[in-house]
Amino acid sequence: MEIKDCVAIVTGGNRGIGEAFVRAFLAAGARRVYVGSRNIKNADHLVAEAPDRVVALALDVSKPEQIIAAAKDCPDVSVVVNNAGAFNNKRLIGAPDISAAREEMEVNYFGLLNMCRAFAPILKNNGGGAIVNVLSAGGIVAAPVMGGYSPSKFAARAATTCIRAEFAAQKTQVSALIVGSVDTRMATHVAGAKEKPEDIARVGLSAIKRSIDEIDTDRMAVEVRANLARDPKALERAMARMLDAPEISTGR
Fold first, then answer.
1. Residue 176: which CATH number?
2. Predicted structure pTM score
């Protein structure tokens, strides 16, 4: 589909990859972009940049009532970008409890699912449109150092495939972005080279325009997929060894 004149909503749109998506949509000629943020004031800088085209929304995707309210307030949406994410950097068994893993699942899986459910009839009414789910290399290979995050992204990736099948009849394109390490606040602890958020957004818009189901957005994601295909057991052992490393070296 064409980006020009579309109306998009971006969850977690006030910073990082979400903020880059907002600016990419504006640069590509989107008519309006709704910026979802847990604290609406955190999106003020984007509203100030394009007050006639950017609308800030209070939207915490772990709260279904806020998703329902957003769908009611945004009946003109034709593109949904599920970008909001939680990464608590906790082990599954070594964590003191499962609260961190539960939060990651609520945001990264159930939040995405509830957004798709809430906006399904809106997208249908507006001609089908598109959904972009911002996922992770941790959703194609299990990363023990991201004990809650990685399983939540696996679930989100599987859900993306199921949602794509259900939405085919209403002609809604559903794309999955497999993201490696990006220079965002979520990845401040990550060692090594990091991609720019705007590069991820650029790939995301390309996926929309070219109707791509799933795409690796950066070098790390490409390398993880290649290593998984080449020798999955060796990759599993390498990921396990990271439990003893001082820093996590992969993941969005």
1. 3.40.50.720
2. 0.93
